[in-house]
Amino acid sequence: ETFQKMFGEIQRKSLSGFTIFPLILRPRSSGRIYLKNSNPFRYPVIEPNYFSDPYDLDISVKAIRKALEIVEHPAMQRINAHLLQIPMPGCEQLEFNSDDYWRCFTRYATYTIYHHVGTCKMGPRKDPTAVVDARLRVHGIKGLRVVDASIMPNVPAGHTNAPTVMIAEKAADMIKEDWNMVRR
C-alpha cells in the first residue's frame, strides 16, 4: 500500500529511474527470538528491536545524505538525476528532506534484506546465551545440529550467502567425521 502511494504514479507513467538503498552493514541494534512455551507448534515470539540503538537511525540518515550527494554529482546531473519529492506516508507532517523527515522515512521504509543471523549463538555450554557447540550440536539435545546463518554472532559485512555455504561445508565435514565416513 505504501509502495503504491509513493511509486504508483511512476509505474503507471513508465518513467525511468533508479533507487539507492543505503544500508547498515554492522547494526548495533539487536533483537531476540524465543519460544512462547513448550508447544512446538506455537509460533515463536520475534522481537526485532530495529533502531533500538539510536546510532543505527543516525547512521541511516547520514547514509541518505551521502546518497543525495551522489545524486547531485555532476556525472549524475548530466543524466538529469534528481530526488523525487514524494512524501512517505506517515511523515507528511515533517519538512521534506530534513533530518527528522529522513528519520521518519527510515522507520517506515527500512527492511532487513533478509540477512538475519545470531538467533542460535555458538558457544560453550556454560554460556547461557549459547545454543550450539563448536561442532554445531544443540546443547542438551542429542542428534540435533543447527547449520545455517543463525549460528553467526554478527551480520557479516556483505551477503550472508557465502558464509552460510562455508558453515554448511564445514558441518558436512564434521558430520562425516562423527560418523567415521571420512575417506583418507
UniProtKB/TrEMBL annotation:
Q: Please give the Gene Ontology molecular function terms for this protein.
A: flavin adenine dinucleotide binding; oxidoreductase activity, acting on CH-OH group of donors
Glucose-methanol-choline oxidoreductase C-terminal domain sequence ranges: 27-168
Superkingdom field: Eukaryota
Q: Which residues cross the membrane?
A: none
**Similarity section:** Belongs to the GMC oxidoreductase family.
Q: What is this protein called?
A: Glucose dehydrogenase [FAD, quinone]
Recorded source organism is Culex pipiens (House mosquito)
